[in-house]
Amino acid sequence: MSMVTKRAIVGLGSSGRSVIEYFATYFKAENYLSTVTAFDTRKEPPGIEKLHIDYPELNTVLGDLNGELLATQEQIILSPGLSIYESAIQHAISAGVEVISDIELFARAIKDDEDKAAVVAVTGSNGKSTVVTLLSKMGSAAGWSVRAGGNLGVPALDLLSNSAERVDLYILELSSFQLETDLSLAPKAAVLLNISADHLDRYRDVGHYGEIKGKIYSNAETLVYPLEIDGDEIEKLVESGNVGAKRAPYGGSANGQQYSIQEYSGSRWIFRGGERIIELYEIAMVGAHNYTNALAALSLGEAVDIPLNAMLAALKEFRGLEHRTELIAERDGVRWINDSKGTNVGATEAAILGLSEAGAKIVLIAGGQGKGADFTSLRSLAQKFLRGVVLLGEDAQLISAALDGVVEEVMVDSMESAVARASKMAQIGDSVLLSPACASFDQFLGFEDRGNRFKDAVNAMEIAA
To answer: N or C: which end of the chain has fewer CB within 10 A?
Structure first.
């Protein structure tokens, strides 16, 4: 790392703290921290006292960002929680200050890595965490040493090993915010899973947001991308990606060597090119969006040479992320699915559509704090795919009004009675789906607590049965 004499860490969330820890651990001899000023827009960021005790040599400046002061730095490591378009940061950029992220520090650190672990980068509006977790299970099933993190879970710099332990594969989940700053990261494979209108408070429009996401393809060796998802937006971004890179599409109506989903004698399979790989029924995850996530993970795994048998073993075991269309039980011909993370209408629609692909009818458990959402779009889905709906929580009446009687409906006041009533409604071959389309704070501590209460109620029923 070059001899920079003045550095600013802007933002003291988990990524900012990981940068402090990294400097303190890896550059102890050069006493880096005495050259660092940490900034945070909050007057009292959580844990600031402990930070001062642990790193007495660190300077901190709290409150509104001061562009003049930032312009005197040589390098700014910007937290993904703060926008590069912030005027104080723009002021520093125009004064010639280098602005990078913790991901860039990670990229520079592994450049000198003797063993050259493979790096995979994953971005997209939905499904990132599922693909990252599934891919890491695929690597582990092959006996590899895998470290995964970034936007979700462990900050990238905390994945670095300062021991002699060998790492075979790093998997980074990157948000658009982490892709805003220039990136020298050259992953062995990269994917942009999808683009939906998200974070438009931070970007000019969806096109601008997509452009930022597309930066993941700039230096990758294999560009993995979905066919027939989000029009040809993603394919355009792949076209303008790394010119010499290998292209690895997945999905679509297969022609070529990609992984795709095809019918074969009455059931649905994942194919690779013309070869049948695994029947969808054998995959532990449920829902169409998860089958697409499986295709993405297989394509990335192949790009970094994870053996196919290990990838298939992981697909048969991994039930999906907790609280995200997670299959929790299958009893008396009914599947029980926990999608407590479905805290808005879009997420619930995606879960219903994903499950309906399997041809099953669905009993939906929904309700909570709707945050002013419009539930009317659920009506046509209810008419087509729902056997019935069980409503609870603060905005149960609003959902009921939006559904307008198109499907059998019952109101309850607790998760336990919701499960009991759903169990009565469901018929063999159905799925019972908890996907509330609402926040949980009226009755629960958060979506995790809500999902756990659902699981407990389902398990208690099993014991009673």
So the answer is: C
